[in-house]
Design a protein that fits this description.
Arc Repressor Mutant, subunit A, DNA-binding, homodimer, mainly alpha, 2 domains
Chain lengths: 227, 227
DNA sequence: TGTACATCAGTGAACGCGCGTTCACTGATGTAC
DNA sequence: TGTACATCAGTGAACGCGCGTTCACTGATGTAC
């Protein structure tokens, strides 16, 4: 590997790190081409040697952040023996919050208000963004196999949501009932709702012991899922 | 009432309407002083006769939006006979989504990523923002009085969260257990999580029949709360 | 191995844009006597 | 009721700012023969 290629890789790395630095220090509004250049002691136009536009920069950043989050949560989940279903769920839920609190701006970029005139492209970014959902779906498969029976069902007929089943099948997840999917999703929404409150909410700031509070929310999801 | 005062009131109203129009058409980034002036066929500086700064403008807007949302949801809730506890909850949950879908940008302004360098002041805005929480707390009181017993409890001792109880008491809500509060809040988070997904999320766009989906989520909250 | 040429990273100036806010002003509406 | 003055809504120009992106350029690094 020649010097030139090495240096290019180093710079690319540095750009990414600097971008995350901007995000951590100033939130998503700080994510500007010029700010990034300032941070790197470069002239703004220099960045266009590495990135075609601000949009492309954001795409790269999104992809990395999704990957980081999914890696972290998945590692916590995978550390639990696979027959301990409640433990897997609890590890998942706990890690989700841990990551969010350690990376509030990254979390916000991914989960908050979509950026105007920017849409996450449905490529690798999406495959990363979806990893945790698939993890949950697999947990759901295991739960059903172990005899956990979900109690949430859609109003209409069986298979009121064919698109959902089809999508899961396309991802290799076939042994799960619609009811289990909905139950898992309900748990996911409960956790996410709690995190939105903690990070954005009116109450997030004061009032209560947040660890105990979240713990109660995790218990709620357990009741919901495992009865 | 003299002509001058009348016209001032009309203009104030027009400013608010125009601001909401900007929001609806272009999202929160469109909420600029100059854009507002353009919409009103005024020169930007003219607005400073009515509003001290962009910040004040936002505060007024927040207050109105919170009020609108709370009015709408509360009306739906209050239309149900007060002894029909499940019906009250269901009406609340349904109206919450209805309002969100009819006013996605308003909903986003209130519930999405907090605006940089703007914090909602803890005045009337907060009293409006909190109305729905208090409504739920009262529903919780009624539920307990009717013998619905919540099954979620915080890990530690009784009253692991004294600040919460104290706050509710300051709002005139005293006959509710911590467990009931947490149960209600869990339901709230589940609904909000589902709405965040629908409005911001990766899946929001396609995949499924969203009405059926949300209905299943409401059922989940009912299971959680009423057993 | 040495030379001629091509590639590439980074510079510096400039573009057009929209933003929030200020200021001195004009002309119409309201008020006091 | 008529006049003199004060209040007020809206104007128009200007301020300083930061943004994303382009372009012609320099000088160092790499490549072909």
């Amino acid at each position: 590997m020649s010097t030139r290629a090495e240096r290019r890789e180093i710079t690319e790395r540095a750009i990414l790190d600097a971008a995350r630095g901007l995000l951590v220090e100033g939130g998503q509004e700080a994510l500007t081409v010029r700010g990034l250049a300032r941070k790197l002691n470069l002239v703004p136009s220099a960045l266009y040697r590495y990135v075609a536009s601000r949009e492309e920069l954001l795409t790269i950043l999104f992809s990395h952040i999704y990957t980081d989050m999914a890696d972290f949560v998945q590692a916590a989940h995978d550390a639990v023996p696979s027959d301990d279903l409640r433990g897997r769920w609890r590890a998942f839920a706990t890690a989700l919050r841990e990551w969010a609190l350690e990376h509030p701006y990254e979390w916000t970029l991914i989960n908050g208000t979509p950026l105007r005139d920017y849409h996450v492209p449905p490529t690798e970014t999406l495959t990363q963004g979806i990893r945790l959902h698939l993890l949950l779906a697999r947990l759901g498969e295991d739960a059903e196999a172990a005899g956990v029976h979900p109690r949430i069902r859609p109003e209409g007929s069986p298979s009121a949501m064919p698109g959902l089943k089809q999508f899961l099948a396309s991802q290799g997840i076939e042994n799960i009932s619609e009811e289990s999917v909905l139950t898992g999703v309900a748990g996911w929404h409960l956790l996410m709702g709690a995190l939105y409150e903690e990070l954005f909410g009116l109450f997030g700031a004061d009032l209560e012991d947040k660890d105990v509070y979240y713990d109660a929310m995790v218990s709620a999801t357990e009741k919901l899922i495992f009865g």
